[in-house]
């Protein structure tokens, strides 16, 4: 297997087109002798690229059902900088359990490991591996190859960045003051109900502001929207910054919530 992994790295190094990543994910899957390998990349302008070995029917269903909004793997990796074994994620909600059952029925596998990679100016990528096997077999596999996979993930991402470096990202549309306020309170750790109370609006209206901001930022979900807004300097999270700005609406109430 080491020989096959070394061959994969050699072929990765010689790749000169972005579409070759599809073949490389298949090659990596075969080298590791697992069910699937997927590389998912979100560019700085919110454009997505997906390369991998999932059944096209599952990829289409994932998109049709908008599973990205509840997928614990995507949500968990947006909030982490270290690799994530799927068993460590929260799969307890009814919607998430149904999603997991659907994914297994489509051959995704009951085991998984995802490596988040962050590139320049907000670029985000995931290298995901999945397989159908026992916990013991998966733990043995990860013990043997986890370090190799982390190195491979970063080399693969670096190659993708190199191959798309000629693209010019679209200009991000400016956020309205209310959209900035909504994302700022969420970035501070307040729940949606708390943020709505502090802004003096309904949760329904708050959701509208968040969705509008997410669309402008080209974000996959709220967590990604907050991360992009911070990365682009559209919101600043920190007490000193808020004081300098004269405070947000409901600042005194926010202090009360934070201390309760």
Automatic annotation (TrEMBL):
- For this entry, list what GO says about its biological process: regulation of DNA-templated transcription
Note the Gene3D superfamilies from the entry.
Transcription factor LuxR-like, autoinducer-binding domain, Winged helix-like DNA-binding domain superfamily/Winged helix DNA-binding domain
Instruction: Report the superkingdom from the record.
Output: Bacteria
Tell me the SUPFAM superfamilies matching this sequence.
C-terminal effector domain of the bipartite response regulators, Pheromone-binding domain of LuxR-like quorum-sensing transcription factors
InterPro entries from the entry? Answer: Sig_transdc_resp-reg_C-effctor, TF_LuxR_autoind-bd_dom, TF_LuxR_autoind-bd_dom_sf, Tscrpt_reg_LuxR_C, WH-like_DNA-bd_sf
Concerning SMART domains, the annotation shows: HTH_LUXR
Q: Which UniProt keywords apply?
A: DNA-binding, Transcription, Transcription regulation
Q: Residues in domain HTH luxR-type?
A: 168-233
Q: Please give one Gene Ontology molecular function term for this protein.
A: DNA binding
Annotated protein name in UniProt: Regulatory protein, luxR family
The scientific name of the source species is Loktanella atrilutea
Q: What is the lineage of its organism?
A: Bacteria, Pseudomonadati, Pseudomonadota, Alphaproteobacteria, Rhodobacterales
């Amino acid at each position: 297997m080491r020989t096959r992994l070394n061959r994969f790295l050699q072929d990765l190094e010689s790749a000169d087109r972005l579409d070759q990543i599809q073949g490389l994910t298949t090659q990596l899957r075969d080298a590791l002798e697992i069910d699937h390998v997927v590389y998912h990349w979100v560019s700085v302008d919110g454009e997505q690229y997906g390369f991998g070995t999932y059944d096209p029917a599952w990829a289409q269903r994932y998109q049709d059902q908008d599973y990205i909004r509840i997928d614990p793997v995507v949500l968990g990796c947006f909030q982490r900088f270290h690799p994530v074994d799927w068993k460590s994620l929260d799969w307890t909600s009814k919607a998430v359990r149904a999603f997991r059952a659907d994914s297994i029925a489509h051959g995704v596998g009951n085991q998984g490991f995802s490596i988040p990679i962050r590139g320049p100016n907000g670029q985000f990528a995931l290298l995901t591996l999945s397989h159908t096997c026992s916990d013991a077999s998966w733990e043995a596999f990860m013990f043997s190859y986890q370090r190799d996979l982390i190195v491979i993930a970063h080399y693969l991402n670096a190659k993708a960045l190199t191959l798309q470096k000629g693209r010019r990202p679209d200009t991000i549309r400016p956020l309205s003051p209310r959209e900035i306020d909504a994302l700022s309170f969420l970035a501070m750790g307040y729940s949606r109900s708390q943020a709505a109370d502090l802004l003096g609006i309904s949760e329904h209206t708050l959701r509208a502001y968040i969705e509008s901001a997410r669309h402008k930022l080209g974000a996959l979900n709220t967590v990604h929207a907050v991360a992009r807004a911070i990365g682009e300097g559209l919101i600043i999270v920190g007490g000193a910054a808020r004081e300098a700005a004269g405070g947000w609406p409901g600042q005194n109430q926010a202090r009360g919530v934070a201390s309760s």
